[in-house]
Amino acid sequence: MRRFISVLFCCLVSWYAIADDDVNTKDSTAASSSIDSELIELVNQLPNTKLNKMQPLVENIAAIKSHKTREVLQILLAGDLYYLKSDKTLVNAQKQNDGNYQLTNILTDEALAPVKKRAIRKIRSNNRLRSAIRSFIAKIDLTDDDKSTRYGAVEQLLEKPSQETLDTMRSLLPLEKDADVANLMQTVLLIEQLKHGKIDEQLSAVAGLKSSLEPVVLNTLSALSEELSASEKTQEQEQLLTAMSKAIATIESKRSNYKFIENVFFGLSLGSVLLLAAIGLAITFGVMGVINMAHGEMIMLGAYTTYVVQLVFPNLIEYSLLIAVPAAFVVTGLVGILIERGVIRFLKGRPLETLLATFGISLILQQLVRTVFSPLNRQVQSPEWMTGSWQINPVFSLTFNRLYIILFAIMVFFTLLMILKKSSLGLHVRAVSQNREMAKALSIKSDWVDAITFGLGSGIAGIAGVVLSQLTNVGPNLGQAYIIDSFLVVVFGGVGNLWGTLVAAMSLGSINKFLEPITGSVLANIIVLVGLVLFIQKRPKGLFPQKGRAVD
Amino acid sequence: MKLKKLIAASSIIASSLMAQVAVAADTIKVGVLHSLSGTMAISETTLKDTVLMMIEEQNKAGGLLGKKLEAVVVDPASNWPLFAEKTRELLAKEKVDVIFGCWTSVSRKSVLPVIEELNGLLFYPVQYEGEESSKNVFYTGAAPNQQAIPAVDYLMNDIGATRWVLAGTDYVYPRTTNKILEAYLKAKGVKDEDIMINYTPFGHSDWQGIVSDIKKFGSAGKKTAVVSTINGDANIPFYKELGNQGISAEDIPVVAFSVGEEELSGFDTKPLVGHLAAWNYFQSVESEENDEFIAAWKTFIGDEKRVTNDPMEATYIGFKMWAKAVEKVGTTDVDAVEQAMIGVAVPNLTGGVAVMNPNHHLSKPVLIGEIQEDGQFEVVWETPDTVIGDAWSDYLPSSMNLVSDWTAPIKCGNYDVKTAKCSGQNF
Fold it and tell me: From which residue to which does the signal peptide run (chain B) (predicted)?
């Protein structure tokens, strides 16, 4: 109770201080090298303030116009604001690689000696406080030099601008040089005009807003038109209502177009994951005819290779994927060759035994990984460039990781196609798969070709594992989730046909993603599976069956 | 000569047999029925270790009724019918006095007929969907009114959410919980168009379409919150996709009922920071009992990095209560212990007291925590008092009038207060 009163008192004191502050704001910015004493006082209250009393305190801090204000808020927002347990000095703490924390005094910018975690305590925040801080920072950022910071600030304030913010924007708009920022500010002001303006102002606001895709525009328009259509209308209001309905229709048709494009993108991205998972199998199963149940475990090994790469090079997370791709290819490729030489070559022409043997291998590999790495999922970090999204407009964005994966899958596909079509290895592989005896007679070392082909297929599965480590959990069961999908894609596309695999993966992905919003993902999976079974009944050889005498 | 040998041999056998009987009489057998292999092993192995730790501690303190406790550990291997077989083995062959076990609801449902037939005693330590009360089972995890309903209240009153996404994995717990929540929200005046329900298969990893739908659903100008009953592995890709599509916990908070310290350990928690979870215990809660428990656990398991979680606390409370009840009646007889259990109070790990109620459910505090970068939770809200677990939800028409009360004179798991009848079937 005593603490509560003291906090309340402090808040009151600082409130008066701020009221004073407005008068001499200019002085304090002029003397920017020395830090505002009010700020110091308020900031030093942070360690003693309970979470539910933080909001008024932070509000007071934000109201002080000092160059330090934004910095302090930003550190608090990022969760880096700590205080020393010994003397309650506020510090910006950054974790170092050795586990200790690097400290900087937030008020004096003076570096302090690194300490252990136990010596400092975090200033707590929660969602509500963080969103408040975000809008405080946005208000400060409205006058920032960087145009993308300004854009972000306006975006943050878009939803519920206060009267003060609106006034600031009104005065800033004529000075704004960047077109995007100016447009967004205009939108904010037009919404305000639409809500509270006179009828002719409202009409012109509707005209100005009908090309905007910001969700808040559509929400305001539909709320207003609903309100208006429920009550008695004058002629002018009738006119406004028609204008608004037209604007809503325009915006909604645009939105549904983008929704369609987005679905295509989702479909392609799921398709490219399927393609990556299946394309290795298209070689081992499709070209060589080996039913390889351990294919999923090759994917898993590739994912674990990524984990190991990140473990060995903890400072190179940004480049870890670039290292992991060749590493995974080599590791799983070698494992593949080992399996082929050790087991599969003795089972040539006995598909059932091959199936059982490779299934056994898959269990052995899973258990091996469980023993070596633990049965728990392992943490694979995403590099910075794989996170976030490319915001094309307010309703349409593409996530970077999916975008890169689509490009990567297509790249892998065409590289593989080139290898099979243009290289001498590819020639030998095709020769052996079409007619082993004849190829042997032409002095092709069919055993060697088998081993290399199996290694190639497994290596590509390993690459798929690197990609999947970015999308899903890396654990011993990772492979099992993809083995069935992989077989489906290869069989659907037509065994032995790489183009078939591409088309099959992309179409399965797209069908799935277009069904999902309508039926839900559980039913979508079932429908795709049933459809596939019916299709295989009708055309047992898949979409693009191999033709000619080689087929028997 | 031969005869002598025979006599000698038989006397040795007889004496050793007698010794065994004597030893058997000197121990109290505790069955541990948790999967140690298969998909549930990740979660359940921890609970097996917790029971073993509790037994070790109890033995160090002199055992129970002057006897040592002896653990009988079996492995039902995440295989639901095997749970029933192993229960039969524990009760009929090993003659255990009590069983601690099960995680998934389907495994508990498979154990129920056996444990009722052989009159055993099961302590079930995981949050579940309710709609059940058996004479032979004590539910030390949360019922929906001790986790889901308070979480929704928090989102409604403190966050101001008016639009709801109920997302879950497609099986019995999320389906029942969401049914209860939907009825609850509608009773609170939430309209149909403000509720979106979505189910996904186990281990779902391609969340882009669903997250995009949630984003669109949440952009209608009303504060939107997601209530997630998504299970296990599927959570990480879900949160990752939320992060990638630019949805932060401040825009659309997700409150999860299946994400705890154990699930978060070893994950890249960056995309999860700020999202919420509702439990009855967090490792970060500061209390003397909790500090002791965490220290004991780390020593027992021999790993400084291991975390504690809610089902472990439920196991802890269940074990302490059982020990107290046995001491009270001076026997391990199931019927006597079952009656003695009701009303038993032991300290929980969050600084309060857990009481066993006549419906075989606990009184528990409900905590809402925000996920921190180190995989721990920061408590942002808690119920002022403990909440009594409700076996039969008041928000489902089928169970509205049902109560469970195992004390005389009702002695019934599903007593209809309107018709004053007991259907006799408890699940």
Answer: 1-24
